[in-house]
Amino acid sequence: MTDLKxxxxxxxxxxxxxxxxxxxxxxxxxxxxxxxxxxxSPDEAATQARDRAVDFAVVDLILYDSLGVEVIxxxxxxxxxxxxxxxxxxxxxxxxxxxxxxxxxxxxxxxVNARDLLTALDSEP
Length: 125
Description:
The protein has about 120 residues and is an alpha/beta fold. The chain has helices at about 20-30, 40-50, 70-80, 100, 115-120, and strands at about 10-15, 35-40, 55-60, 85-90, 105-110.
């Protein structure tokens, strides 16, 4: 089993508009020695992905003023190779469709923690 105290992942971009989720996941990742960057919109996420050494992104499916799919498109324009894990508390990914299957996006249901997300990252999209 991989030792999560010394992860191969050094940094993560969290894209979520729920401050409680961002705080909890940030704490989890930092306890594992992973640097955390945050964003709450597609434009902010793309800027962070371009400007920071981000190893993967965690994107909420439903944001206050946009959809996670819009964030994924913005991230793909900024960093096409960036691994993405899409999260939702609604557990409905069927309408995400081809984006998840062909875009290399992994999907996981909330609630999640850092270890769940790292496991999802290692799974096949």
